[in-house]
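> call design_seq(struct)
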């Protein structure tokens, strides 16, 4: 999951010029680490040590979904920086004068964040329909408005870099612009975002639990501790990720003893050795505890809950980037009368042949008829 995880903030992130980069704020060093993972150059702050409880919670964490504490999010848990760079290269006429021209086809209100030079003002917040660069094609005979909307580059404008030069193909070449516009957003975890531990236990955030409803430890050395993440116990047996259970036990020992635990394969401490050291600190041998239900106030006496710190990472798959809906009056191709593909072009959702067969099997013929004929091609054949 390391390749999909949002990384730690690098010192020169503003100068890299990536089209899209995700940085985890308040990243932590893992309590359990391998010898290779501790070497210089390996990621050290791409996740957070979360107190993870393995238990069902009112049916909210079924399948691979997880529950996260609202208090944990409010304290900055998994808060990320989404840094984007819009790049334009061309020789068109750039400027805000286009709003006074009769051929301007864009709503004038969408130019409100652009200066007279046609570029956005640093510090202003762009929405997805706002103009990020105001320009026209520069043709005297057939002038055309070619202004570009922000779309997925929405956010607070951080900086605008402008370079000029000449395109050298043959001869002198025409004068050209190279413009970089950097924007950023802070992303707070919301329902639908994806998280994972280092053992590839992926999970979608299904419910943000109010802190007062969470179960808590009634007594002992860690009295009052509440879980940050609650994951389903059904995610463990079939996948056999026993390493996550050992990490929770070793992470608890690391938090109590103040020493980073070695998690290198074939050389780490055994479960019996970890349990012996845990018992010396006054904890249960295998990290299981009896909790009090935060909603009812009653002690959960019928079960022992396995709870401990696990290093979780926030992945780059976020629901705000994937959520897409389309109205019937959206754009269509002139040739085929079908909606264009893709979210950025306000396209449609594809319904393949297999999906059609599945729909017929489940006796959903009427919605299928609506999708295939009435919404796709309403003309009579």
């Amino acid at each position: 999951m390391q390749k999909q995880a949002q990384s730690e903030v690098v010192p020169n992130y503003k100068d890299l010029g990536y089209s899209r980069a995700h940085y985890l704020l308040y990243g932590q060093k893992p309590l359990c680490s391998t010898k290779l993972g501790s070497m210089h150059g390996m990621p050290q702050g791409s996740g957070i040590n979360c107190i993870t409880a393995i238990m069902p919670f009112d049916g909210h964490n079924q399948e691979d979904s997880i529950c996260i504490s609202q208090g944990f999010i409010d304290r900055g848990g998994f808060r990320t920086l989404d840094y984007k760079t819009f790049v334009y290269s061309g020789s068109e006429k750039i400027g805000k004068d286009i709003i006074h021209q009769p051929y301007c086809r864009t709503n004038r209100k969408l130019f409100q964040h652009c200066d007279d030079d046609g570029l956005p003002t640093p510090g202003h917040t762009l929405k997805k329909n706002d103009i990020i660069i105001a320009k026209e094609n520069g043709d005297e005979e057939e002038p055309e408005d070619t202004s570009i909307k922000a779309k997925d580059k929405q956010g607070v404008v951080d900086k605008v870099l402008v370079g000029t030069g000449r395109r050298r193909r043959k001869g002198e070449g025409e004068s050209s612009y190279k413009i970089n516009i950097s924007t950023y957003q802070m992303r707070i975890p919301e329902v639908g975002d994806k998280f994972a531990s280092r053992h590839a236990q992926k999970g979608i955030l299904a419910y943000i639990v109010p802190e007062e409803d969470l179960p808590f430890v009634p007594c002992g050395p860690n009295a009052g501790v509440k879980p940050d993440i609650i994951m389903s116990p059904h995610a463990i047996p079939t996948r056999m990720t026993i390493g996550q259970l050992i990490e929770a036990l070793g992470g608890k020992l690391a938090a109590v003893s103040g020493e980073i635990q070695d998690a290198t394969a074939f050389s780490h401490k055994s479960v019996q050795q970890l349990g012996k050291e845990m018992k010396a600190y006054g904890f249960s041998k295998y990290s299981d505890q009896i909790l009090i239900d935060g909603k009812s106030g009653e002690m959960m006496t019928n079960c022992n809950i396995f709870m401990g710190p696990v290093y979780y990472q926030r992945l780059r798959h976020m629901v705000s980037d994937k959520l897409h809906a389309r109205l019937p009056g959206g754009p269509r191709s002139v040739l085929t009368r079908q909606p264009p593909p893709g979210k950025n072009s306000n396209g449609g959702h594809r319904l393949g042949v297999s999906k059609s067969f599945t729909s017929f099997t489940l006796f959903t013929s009427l919605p299928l008829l609506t999708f295939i004929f009435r919404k796709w091609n309403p003309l009579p054949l």
